[in-house]
Every structure is written in structure tokens, then in C-alpha cells.
Specification:
The protein is mostly beta strands. It contains 5 helices and 17 strands. The radius of gyration is 20 Å and the shape is globular.
Length: about 350
């Protein structure tokens, strides 16, 4: 294997060993826990009022166009106890082929302070629904129902190997129980699932912070599952560190995972985001997957370069160019455009 092929993996490992680690970039940039912007304490999906207005409306939008919409903005809270939202995402491939990736509507009931019942609707009904109870000024929480497991970087791009190869597809919602706590500045989640009569247990921890002009968020995730017919199927044993750091206009993210009972496979992700101005970002990403973890056989890896553009509030365009540097598609490339409207 060529040195340049494994260099990004080694660099990523060194970065993480220095404990400058993070969840997706807004958490790293702002040094905030996921629950600040999302209903789910571990991020992703429906946004809180703060995430919807203070972040999505004010920060992720061109400042010159945002001012024309400020007077017409409507809060997602339609009553004292009901919060709504939605995400619609499409992918336009070369040749004009269009794929609908997501059309979800969110509904959250909050009959009492710190008690919520959340539902996610799609074309086949509800894909996510759970009760969320916070205790002791939101220091602890209990989540029961069907939800997305907490693990690693919760990214919307499920082409990444650390999502697709580990079983974390877009609709990976499972019935389970999640126990969470904030202890010593760290956010901890312990989760239990029983898909197809198979026990699955998971542990997830992350921490936000900053030092001088650098902000960071560090994390570790692990999952273990009961074998069925000699295989763990879509729920392999996994363990991984994930992280990143943010300085001024630059945010670096990364994740390094080992999968399988004997740590059979190695997966890595690295992404660098540069803010040209608020609402306009350049993103470079690297993905690596070695099924045998020997760095000597055939591996899969690709580079992706994207321009992320928010011309008006809640509207995103993301043209992306992908070049495959190893694996079955070695030397090939493609271009696609993501269009996303979310509120």
C-alpha cells in the first residue's frame, strides 16, 4: 500500500490522541451539547427553538439575505406545549436523476416542563417516537421508545463508511431505552435495545469545551451485540473515538472505529470545513475502510469536496465532487447536488 493511502488515517489518529476531538461541526464550533439545538439529547433530527432560530436562522444563512426574512419568521412552537418541524432532502445525480433522501415531519408534545413525547412522520407512518424525561434541572434523562442509537459523529451524510458500514443508515431507528447524565462536564448515555430478540448494548460519552481560541468536543462510543446464528448481522461489535477542533473559520472533524469481535475492520473519517462567510462553507472529506484491518490488502477510500451554501433561511444547496482513490471504484469520480429544506 502506498504511504499516501494510510497517511490520513495516521494523522487522524494523532489528532485524536491529543484529545482535540468533536461531534459534528456546530457542536465543536460553539462548545455546546447536542441537546442545545436538538430534541434528541444526542443530536440529529428535530431542532429545538434555539437550534431553529438562533443557529439555523441566524448563523447558517447569508447575513445579507437573512435581514429580509426576519420580520416574517415564525417560531416552531405553535402553542405552549407543541413544537413542530420538518426536513426535506433530495440528491440530484449526474444525468439529472433525482433521489428523495428524506421527507420527515416532526411533532413534539411537552405537556409538562422537562417531559416530552416526540414523533417523526414519513411516508410509511412514524419512524421515530419516544418519551423523554429530564430530571434534576436536566442533569439526567430517561428516553424510552423507538429512536436512533447514539454513536460517533451523527452526520447527515450516510455515504461515509463510519455510518454505512457500521449499520447506522438513515432509518436505523430501534426500540430501546436510553439513560443519560451530565457528570463533570461530560454527557453520558447508556442504551439497551432488543432487535429481533437480540440484545444490543451501547455506551456513548462526549464532552465540549474550549481553551483560549480553540474549542473542542471529545467523544468515545462502543456497542456490543448478542450473536444470532453465528453472526451479529447489522449490529456488529464496534468501538470508536471521534472528535474535532474549531479555530476561527476552520473546523476539523474525525472518527476512527474498529468493528468486529476481534477488531476485524478499521474505518476512518476526516473532514475540514472552512467558513468563507456565514452561509457559505467549503468542505473537504476523507473516508477510509479496511475490512481486514491489515492495511496491506485492498481498502476502500474516497475524497469528497463540497460547497455548502445557505442562500436564504432553512434552505441548503450542497454540490459535491467525489473521487475514489482505492477499492472497486478506484480512479472513478462523480458529481451530485444535495438540496435540503429544514425547519
Amino acid at each position: 500500500m502506498k504511504v499516501w493511502t494510510i497517511a490520513p488515517v495516521l494523522v487522524l489518529f494523532l489528532i485524536m490522541a491529543a484529545a482535540l476531538q468533536s461531534l459534528p461541526r456546530l457542536a465543536a464550533e460553539q462548545s455546546l451539547a447536542c441537546k442545545t439545538c436538538h430534541i434528541n439529547p444526542n443530536g440529529g433530527g428535530a431542532r429545538t427553538e434555539f437550534g431553529n432560530h438562533s443557529v439555523a436562522f441566524h448563523e447558517l444563512t447569508l447575513q445579507k439575505t437573512k435581514k429580509y426574512f426576519e420580520k416574517k419568521f415564525r417560531s416552531p412552537r405553535i402553542s405552549e406545549s407543541v413544537l413542530v418541524g420538518f426536513d426535506s432532502r433530495y440528491r440530484v445525480q449526474e444525468g439529472g436523476r433525482v433521489f428523495r433522501l428524506q421527507t420527515d415531519a416532526y411533532l413534539t408534545f411537552e405537556p409538562y416542563q422537562d417531559l416530552m413525547y416526540h414523533l417523526r412522520f414519513w411516508e410509511n407512518g412514524t419512524s421515530e417516537q419516544y418519551m423523554l424525561l429530564y430530571l434534576n434541572q436536566q442533569k439526567y434523562y430517561l428516553k424510552i421508545g423507538r429512536f436512533y442509537p447514539a454513536y460517533g459523529l451523527r452526520m447527515a451524510d450516510f455515504d461515509t463508511f463510519v455510518r454505512s458500514q457500521l449499520g447506522f443508515s438513515y432509518n436505523a431507528y430501534i426500540d430501546g431505552v436510553s439513560l443519560g447524565a451530565k457528570i463533570g462536564g461530560s454527557n453520558i448515555a447508556v442504551e439497551f435495545f432488543n432487535p429481533n430478540q437480540r440484545f444490543v448494548g451501547a455506551f456513548h460519552i462526549f464532552r465540549t469545551g474550549y481553551t483560549k481560541s480553540i474549542s473542542y468536543l471529545a467523544g468515545f462510543s462502543a456497542r456490543t451485540s448478542e450473536q444470532q446464528f453465528g453472526s451479529n448481522g447489522a449490529f456488529p461489535h464496534t468501538k470508536g473515538i471521534f472528535g474535532g477542533l474549531s479555530y476561527n473559520r476552520f473546523t476539523l472533524l474525525g472518527e476512527l472505529d474498529l468493528a468486529g469481535k476481534a477488531n476485524d475492520s478499521l474505518l476512518a473519517y476526516a473532514g475540514l470545513t472552512t467558513r468563507i462567510e456565514y452561509g457559505l462553507y467549503l468542505i473537504a472529506e476523507y473516508n477510509f475502510f479496511d475490512n481486514n484491518r491489515d492495511l496491506a490488502g485492498e481498502v476502500n477510500e474516497f475524497l469528497r469536496f463540497s460547497l455548502e451554501f445557505y442562500p436564504i433561511p432553512f434552505v441548503q444547496f450542497r454540490p459535491s465532487y467525489t473521487y475514489y482513490t482505492s477499492g472497486p471504484l478506484d480512479g472513478e469520480d462523480n458529481f451530485f447536488l444535495l438540496f435540503h429544506v429544514g425547519y
